[in-house]
Amino acid sequence: MFFIKLFISSFFMIICIGVAFDVSSLLTSNILGPVNIDDNTKNNKNNFEETKTNITKRKSEIKCNEYRNAVTEKVWLFHPSQSKPFSISIPCKQPINLLISGGGPVESGQFPHMAAIGWSDNDSNIQYFCGGSLISENWILTAAHCTQYRLKRKPSVVRLGSNRLSDKMGEIIKIIDIIRHPEYKPPEMYSDIALLKLETSVIFRKNIRPACLFSQIHKLPMAAWTTGWGQTESDEDKGSDDLLKVRLEILDNVDCSLSYNKIPIIPDGITSGMLCAGDLHSTGKKDTCKGDSGGPLQILHPSYCLYELVGITSFGKLCGILKYPSVYTSISYYLEWIESIVWP
Questions:
Q1: pTM for the complete prediction?
Q2: Which of 70, 132, 144, 149 has its CA 20 to 30 A from that of 294?
């Protein structure tokens, strides 16, 4: 849903179109500072020009750009010296703090693609055992091992838009289809990736937005954020009621293989369909843990107010053990499979 607000100053008339945000900082800051002027406005080209550049892009990249347009905070400026208005995109205000096991609480709306996956026998009795990520209006991305039977049933619902599992906020949507990667063969953990189709399409808003998919298979970031409602210690019985976040460093797979040599669930070792991340230079206490499975390993997109999914939480040795990073399913490795189902 769009809205229009008018702000008048002695220099500019400003029209804001998009999702809710605080424009006061724009009015009080140096307007001549670094802002992104939309190319189609600057060059007086219509919006259809953009489709020409999208022809060579991946489906997921095209959809990411569409989602950006749906959630970007845009401002139109009218200046007395110019005959036509021009637009700028407000810098993304995702709160990122250097800070799950050894992690900190998530601020409202900080990871709006985060999903809790639940097992239910009725609408009033739902237990959440895994995480996932909203990647389109109809699909959740998670780990394949999160789709196995628990409590004698498959996962049946997804919860979006709330960081606290015990509150009454958020939106609960039924799962109507579960698609595991065809090469997932438990108990082995290779191809630990699955897609959940939602019964109804999600309407994007401040606390519910999709994530983009990281596509650079040979150019991983140095660090990324992971989020989840899992246990904060290995010996705990219950997970966290609040969504937690932690920043982890990404390891080279060769180095990671030294920690996972001759493990029954990965007899061929760490493969290119996996990546590893952990707390390398402190106590090792920062990590994902039981209950975080299926959740995202993510970075903030450099241009959009959206996150990019780099990995899916898969498995590890206990929680927060120094020199034993957790293992994640690589998004870029399985990107073609994801696209073939979500955007056929």
A1: 0.76
A2: 70
CB distance 213 to 338 below 8 Å:
yes
Element (H, E) at 129: strand 125-134
Amino acid occupying residue 263 = I
| Mean pLDDT calculated for residue range 34-38 | 36
**What CA–CA distance (Å, rounded) separates 246 from 279?**
9
Cα separation, 50 vs 40, whole angstroms:
8
DSSP-assigned letters across all residues of 300-333: E-SSSSSEEEEEEEEE-SSSS-TT--EEEEETGG
Instruction: Fold for 112-207, please state it.
Output: Thrombin, subunit H (2.40.10)
- Supply the DSSP string of 260-276, one letter for each residue: STTBTTBTT-S-TTEEE
Tell me the catalytic residues: 145, 192, 293
- pLDDT, tens digit, 9 for 90 and up, residues 18-33: 443 333 333 333 323 3
Domain 210-337 has CATH 2.40.10.10: yes
| 112-207 and 210-337 agree in CATH topology | yes
Report the 3 state secondary structure along 235-246. Answer: CCCCCCCECEEE
The alpha carbon torsion through 167, 171, 172, 176 (nearest 10 deg) reads -160
**CA 92-94-100 angle, 5° bins:** 155
